[in-house]
């Protein structure tokens, strides 16, 4: 039978719902993760073939509908799946431990409900604002071309509907569920017993400001930067070889880890992807456990960890 030491500082290739049940109970201090949302994207050319090529490396539950064809059932299936994940994370976390989970804006309600229904307390919702993103709305020319009408009518329709696209604006934020496993006794008693359950408000953002539930890593201007900016990530931190489609900034994950855990704490990411949470944990003097079903991503995470500058692995000041 595996002990806690067999799990700590390991990257594990496997399905989270098969790996998590093998872990001991109540030994992890925090969970920071970005789960798959099963909302596969098409570009403006409606290239389903390209989406299907990406499915093996980007999707975990293959029976969900592919592509951007809107299907409300995706949210329901996601809820049922993530409820099982959240139930395991509740068991693994120490009493009072925090669970930070990034989400797609349109699935946030399903994710938060699954986390709450698993037994967590929803303490807050953080918002990560960013500038760089590609619009996902799609035009209709592809479908107009398929209509059984004359070429002249097709051109008239294209002109009439120019600018009208699927109901998707440019997405410039991600919500982060902030949940907590119920604590034992009072918060103070839980902190003394389990070394977790409170936020360290000495961990500042912006120009030495009290931590807020809005976070940015891009510079938005003097006012926003002053109150919400966390250190901008290094341009090389992702790695030119990194094929993961959604790499989170290390500085952002470092902030969440510092806010909610003490040095030497154990941070779990059941969907580690290319390893950002593991790097953030190590660079702040914490331990990590990373799980991912994709062996390509695990290999990338291992390489990123091996290349990350040891000078960054500094514990927080006492």
Characterization of this structure:
There is one protein chain. The protein has 318 residues and is an alpha/beta fold. It has twelve helices and eight strands. Helix 4 (73-92) runs parallel beside helix 5 (108-117) and helix 10 crosses helix 11. It is globular and about 75 Å long.
Descriptors:
alpha/beta, 318 residues, 8-stranded mixed beta sheet, globular
Cα-to-Cα separation, first versus last residue: 35 Å
| Mean pLDDT figure | 86
Class based on secondary structure composition and strand pairing: alpha/beta
Unreliable residue stretches: 40-52, 54-68, 311-318
Beta-sheet strand percentage?
Answer: 15-25%
Shape: globular
Widest sheet, order of strands: 1-8-7-2-3-5-4-6
Order of helices and strands: HEHEHHEHEHHEHEHHEHEH
The residue fraction in helices comes out at 25-40%
